[in-house]
Amino acid sequence: MNHTSTAPVTVETLRVPGATLHYEVRGAGPLVVLVGAPMDARSFEPLADLLAADHTVLTTDPRGINRSTVDDRDRDSTPELRADDLARLITHLDAGPAAVLGSSGGGVSVLALTQAHPGLVHTAIAHEPPLHHGLDDNEELRERTEDLIATHLSGDVVGAWRKFLAIANIEMPEEVFQLMFAGERTPQEAADDDFQYAHMIRSTVRWVPDTAHLRSAATRVLIGIGEDSSGQLCDRSSRALSAALGIEPTMFPGGHIGFAEDPDAFAVRLRTVLSEGGPRP
């Protein structure tokens, strides 16, 4: 990410059980939290800058990724652990309850946060959470994910990314793939990928939400889908979860990472979605 922030940024760390979290705060106003996994705070910088005009915006690196260090790199980063981290960050800022947008694995983190700490979240938006539970091909996806993990851990990085995109039903031109995934990786990028495959992805995609609890929560729970994600795994998983919750999906511009590809359009849509919730304390 080569984005240069246009809003003043406060960069801090917070010590939590088993980890030291890197987090960033922009702007002033109602609290919005932007969450990824394995994506870190850098992916949300353009969107955070836009929202900071009238919100306090919190972004963070998930534990074990980039600048958020963990005491034990052999311990899994589960949705429950990441939810606890988010709860501690929101409590630390003392600016909640918050609107929380989580994308991909971050969407799973947000759902886990809402289940465990509903009082901290007034609006939870899980954008394309890659949950296999509830899909007809759940068992096949489990096997393919295990094969994906084994491929990466064997050292075949490029092969693992090909399998990742195949599972996700994401197609891209070969030259784009080569540019994104086949080049030289920095030591930090290699460490982050290793941690993601060894200690994040399995517990994330296998996580089973308590849909009855989420339906009954005072928190407004929305499942976001990118308008360009039709046919992809996260489109299927998000529609299945929406149906289980008895709600319609909330559509956003772009694809799986629309917030990074076109942050201006995404910010406009997100502001509309947040305003539709009505005034909050």
Task: Explain what the structure shows.
Strands 1, 2, 3, 4, 5, 6, 7, 8 and 9 form a nine-stranded mixed beta sheet that branches. The chain has a domain at 9-134 and 207-275: Alpha/Beta hydrolase fold, catalytic domain (Rossmann fold, 3-Layer(aba) Sandwich). β6, α3 (105-116) and β7 (121-127) form a beta-alpha-beta unit. The chain is built from twelve helices and nine strands. The radius of gyration is 18 Å and the shape is globular. With 281 residues, the chain is an alpha/beta fold. α1 (45-51) packs across α12 (263-275) and α2 crosses α3.
Features:
281 residues; Rossmann fold; nine-stranded mixed sheet; globular; 44% helix
What gyration radius follows from the Cα positions, in whole Å?
A: 18 Å
SS summary, helix count: 12
Content-based structural category: alpha/beta
Low-pLDDT residue intervals, each spanning 5 or more residues = none
**Level-1 CATH class name of the domain at 9-134 and 207-275:** Alpha Beta
Strand content: 15-25%
| Average pLDDT | 94
**What share of the residues lie within helices?**
40-55%
Indicate the CATH topology of the domain at 9-134 and 207-275.
Rossmann fold
Distance between the termini: 35 Å
What is the overall shape? Answer: globular
Largest sheet: 9 strands, mixed
Strand-helix topology:
Blueprint lengths: L8 E8 L2 E8 L4 E5 L9 H7 L4 E5 L8 E2 L8 H15 L4 E6 L1 H12 L4 E7 L10 H16 L3 H12 L5 H8 L5 H13 L1 H5 L5 H6 L3 E7 L6 H13 L4 E3 L5 H4 L1 H13 L6
